[in-house]
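Usage

Read records sequentially. Each one opens with the input sequence:
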Amino acid sequence: MPTAVTLKPGSLSAKRAAEYLDVAEQTLAKWRCHGEGPPFVKINSKILYRVESLEKYLRDHEQPASRRATR
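and closes with the structure output:
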């Protein structure tokens, strides 16, 4: 019988992580398969993301605002 996985404080399911990043859950799955995206934890068949890892992923992908010439 599979063991139930309880989400730890600061952990999100793949569905919630996708919502947090504003991407499709399938996008996260694709990233995992290609070794891209934020780090994740796999326990049995359950995929979890630490909020701190998602925040770091967002910080690492921040782009500076473009400057427009004003006239």
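Summary fields computed downstream for this record:
- The CA atoms of residues 32 and 70 lie 42 Å apart.
- The helical segments are 14-21, 25-34, 51-60.
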